Amino acid sequence: MSLDGKISTGGVDERDADKDFPNIEGVAEGLHQYYELEQQTDSCSFNTGKVQAKIGVNEKKEVSKIPVNFVVVDNKPHLNDVGVDYFIKKSKKFFLITTNKLHPAYQRVDAENLEIMYYEKQIDFQDLFQKFKDAHNIDAITIQSGGTLNAVLLREGLIDRVSIVVAPCLIGGKDTATLIDGKSLSTVADLGMIKPLVLKKCETLANSYIHLQYDVVN
Question: Checking DSSP bridges between strand 210-216 and strand 197-204, what pairing results, if any?
Fold first, then answer.
């Protein structure tokens, strides 16, 4: 994220940090460190169809399989047939989480490594994460979703650790996504949703980047 907490470079889908940061002098030079740290995540990666569509998976025809399970939450849907096929080809196992019975993933139920987890009205993330643990022996998941879903998971007590690479830039813009978005807090009772953090690591990287790691106090 940027120093002011932005995880995108603008408030429209055309703007994206992965696409734009390589073209910004003073930011591009150290960006490789983020991608190197990204490779050190858990073997199960949690994403959203909206974010994945934004970074172009619906146009990717060439893909190599990697030993990572991908979990994608996608209701609208944001993934098309190509995006679904991309994750089937890339994933060790591809979990599609949806409330949409017309999702294009249902056309690929023949894929051995695809599992669709359907919720009728609203995804119960407490139930979902418990199923990952009980049925699939998945004890650790790296969350790489957008600010809205990050807020839901944080407030439900499902985020235990935070690892942030701070890029040396300020972006601004009230409509630009931040690390934690979602519904704003307004009442005194809402203050109980604020999660204190315990700093575990603060590392200065090259080119004015910083890597921060916290435990979340749930």
Answer: antiparallel
- pLDDT, one tens digit per residue, over 53-95 is 988 999 998 899 999 999 999 999 999 999 999 999 999 999 9
Single out the residue in 143, 172, 203 at which a domain terminates: 143
Long-range contact pairs involving 113-122 (C-beta distance under 8 Å, separation at least 24): 113/88, 114/88
Which helix (H) or strand (E) segment is 45 a member of?
strand 44-48
CA distance 76 to 78: 6
For residues 50 and 29, membership in a common domain is answered with no
Are 116 and 69 members of one domain? yes
Q: Which domain holds residue 63?
A: 42-143
Instruction: Report the alpha-carbon distance of residue 187 to residue 23 in Å, rounded.
Output: 42
Provide the CA 73 distance to its chain's centre, in angstroms. Answer: 10
119 plus 186 within the same structural domain: no
What are the pLDDT digits (tens) for 133-145? 999 999 999 999 9
Task: Report the b/e string of 24-41 with b at 16+ CB within 10 A.
Answer: eeebeebbebbeeeeeee
